[in-house]
Automatic annotation (TrEMBL), chains A, B:
Cell membrane found in the keyword field: no
Domain HTH lacI-type: 10-64
UniProt protein name: LacI family DNA-binding transcriptional regulator
Pfam family of the protein (one): Peripla_BP_3
InterPro entries for the chain: Cro/C1-type_HTH, HTH_LacI, LacI/GalR-like_sensor, Lambda_DNA-bd_dom_sf, Peripla_BP_I
Domain HTH cro/C1-type intervals: 13-54
Lineage: Bacteria, Bacillati, Actinomycetota, Actinomycetes, Bifidobacteriales
Listed SUPFAM superfamilies: lambda repressor-like DNA-binding domains (SSF47413), Periplasmic binding protein-like I (SSF53822)
Xref: CDD domains: HTH_LacI
Gene Ontology MF: a single term: DNA-binding transcription factor activity
Keywords: DNA-binding, Transcription, Transcription regulation
Length: 345, 345
DNA sequence: CTGAAAGCGCTTACAG
DNA sequence: CTGAAAGCGCTTACAG
């Protein structure tokens, strides 16, 4: 018995008619914004079920000035961690009934960044998550109105009132200390370019080295072309003092190992090599890679939840939650690519 | 000289006032839906620039019954190919000024799938992309109104009027033929569960085997726990007739190699092993892995473009584009993990 | 507790 | 070419 318009998706008027109440009453029922008599509640519930009515996201968004959606801004859209973060955040959003949007900031000019962000904001998202990976992120932070719920993933402590970050620096320290604890007197670090923040693997490595009283620290930066790391491995193979390397990620680690082997250096017998990220392939490597495992899915989920708390508070007219910087712990995975140095015992 | 309301983001009324024209005229200017005099055009343009006005996505969506956004539905949100697909589609959408949403279907019950889809649709997306990975996708297809622009990624030819698919089957055939061409008399296949469609790597392998007149085909299915593949590798190591394996993906390939090695079997000297997907780590493997490279980023972008063509046609009141099934080609990457069998020449 | 009214920002017929 | 009017589907004061 389709009411009013006979076609397409039912709207609030349809359920109001079918239930024999006014439209605002249905709205109140839906949002719990005011008491509705038991009797009408039931009729409305029935009508909704009968019609399979779903409130329109966009009409609500227009009336409320805000949509039940969040958008994640990222500038490293194809990076492994980004995938995990997005997935974690998206699932959390979905489970709360929020639409989840992604907008990438890579591959566009600086001028376009502003208009891209404005476009995102013109969809009235309830909040935005900025996933830091480079300078762009910080620039972006300033372009988002202060009253828009926001959480920053990564960055330096204090870059934003609400942050979720991986234990990057801690991870760098832990890996380095593991190597040092094995008896290595020096740990060479090879890393990709890192974000402009104070929570990097490289800084953790420096922390550990400094605490161990080691002065001569050697770090090499490599790009995303793995051949570069292979080359570096070949070169490092001829350093007689080399006994341990902490690579900034697993791909770099296996590439270095490849280079070392090309020159007849054995891992871990001659040189220990640790990676970072504990990717799936790492445990299959020969030798299985010592690495640091970071749960980026949890990180993404935590970011959404922190955002959601702000959104809820704002809607309820409550004061904003206290600023927070949550660190998601990772953990060291010791495998066979690291061992005590030959001349240790 | 801020017009009307003095605060927050400007709306169309503000630019109309500032330009000294009516609101509909601004709208016409914006959408090019009717001629606007040169003089007014200029004034409007100026006002827009001055105010940094951006039309509201949601108001437009309400008036037009459709939002400048597309949503991608996926049930394999953390899979490698999914990342690439999403990234490709998102960039293409962004470049067209479309918002891009992702909704995952994994981890929810069958009942919830319908309501999740309804929720997505209640945001009036201009179109949706369904990324096939399992039976869920096909189920989803039927829940989307016929008049909603839609493109299916993957699936069997004919599952939907508009499809973009990887050359999976072709890839399976090419890899197998490569192995056969090297002189192998049999190619054992090890694969993960595959989608319920007729475009799978496994079918390509069967095609090639059949064409080569090989009857005794052996296929093994493994799960996502790589240890299972290692085990299988150990077991296969004792098969005296084994000379070549086509693994359904690179992770499986390296795990099999690990198992083979555990039993003293050398790759490629004793057994050739090929992977699939050509992941970054594959070329760094020891030995570097022969694999099939598929550009999933392009695939995602192509899916969006195909969707966009439908959206445009619909908006212009034109007939829908002709149904299309576009195949994105991949290519064979021959490396050292495959070689002629020992007793070949 | 519950209607009638007005409004969110934009677009589309309808009359000039 | 261009206004005034009505409407998209929902919500929020305003009066009962």
């Amino acid at each position: 018995m389709p009411p009013s318009g006979n076609r397409s998706t039912p709207v609030i008027k349809d359920v109001a008619q079918l239930a024999g109440v006014s439209v605002p009453t249905v709205s109140r029922y839906l949002n719990g914004t005011a008491k509705v008599s038991q009797e009408k509640r039931e009729k409305i519930a029935q009508a909704i079920k009968l019609l399979d009515y779903k409130p329109s996201f966009v009409a609500r968004a227009l009336a409320n000035k805000v949509m039940d959606s969040v958008t994640l801004l990222t500038s490293l859209s194809r990076y492994w961690a980004t995938t995990e973060i997005n997935s974690g955040a998206e699932h959390a959003a979905r489970d709360r009934g929020f639409l989840f949007g992604v907008t990438s900031l890579d591959g566009i000019s600086d001028d376009e960044i502003e208009s891209t962000i404005n476009r995102v904001l013109s969809a009235n998202p309830a909040g935005v998550i900025v996933s830091e990976s480079d300078e762009i992120a910080i620039q972006v932070l300033h372009q988002i109105p202060k009253d828009t719920p926001l959480v920053l993933i990564g960055g330096s402590r204090g870059d934003a009132p609400y942050q979720v970050m991986p234990s990057e620096r801690e991870g760098g320290r832990v890996i380095t200390e593991h190597l040092l604890g094995l008896g290595h007197r020096n740990v060479v670090h090879v890393h990709r370019p890192e974000g402009p923040n104070n929570n990097t693997r490289t800084l953790g490595w420096r922390d550990a080295m400094r605490d161990a009283g080691i002065q001569a620290v050697e770090a090499y930066q490599v790009g995303s072309d793995l051949e570069e790391s292979v080359e570096l491995g070949r070169k490092l193979a001829h350093d007689p003092n080399l006994t341990a390397i902490f690579a900034g990620n697993d791909e770099t680690a296996i590439s270095l190992i490849k280079g070392l082997r090309d020159e007849g250096v054995h891992v871990p017998e001659d040189v220990s090599v640790a990676g970072y990220n504990d990717q799936l392939f790492s445990r299959m490597w020969d030798p299985p890679l010592t690495s640091y495992s970071q749960n980026f899915v949890d990180l993404g989920a935590a970011a959404f939840e922190m955002l959601y708390a702000q959104i809820e508070a704002k809607r309820a007219g409550n004061p904003a939650p206290a600023p927070e910087c949550r660190v998601i712990e990772g953990r060291l995975m010791v495998r066979d690519s690291t061992a005590a140095p030959r001349n240790a015992a």
